[in-house]
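Section 5.1 Outputs to date
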Amino acid sequence: VPVVESGGGLVQTGGFLRLSCAPSGRTWSIYSIGWFRQAPGKEREGISCIKSEDDSPTYADSVKGRFTISRDNAKNSVYLQMTSLKSEDTAVYYCAAYPRCNYPLSLIPYWGQGTQVTVSS
């Protein structure tokens, strides 16, 4: 299940971006899709996930109320709408496909290459 992210870039504080994740493959719909990010010198952290069974979302406290994850089955894509961006949101953002949300990070089988998001003041 190849996974490709797009949509990163440079944005000012308070701005918005939408990241796209395009998992491909016949069985991608059985996977939960999550967004992770890794800032320089920090560990990779999960920030949002959309469940395969019912498309319900989960969010880390750091992004709750500002980020929205969604899935468009017709376009075979998952999106992360990011608003009210802060400098601390600066990181490389990764999309991943795995059996369920809250899956152990070290066991996640499919990762994208990452897309850089930089928030400047």
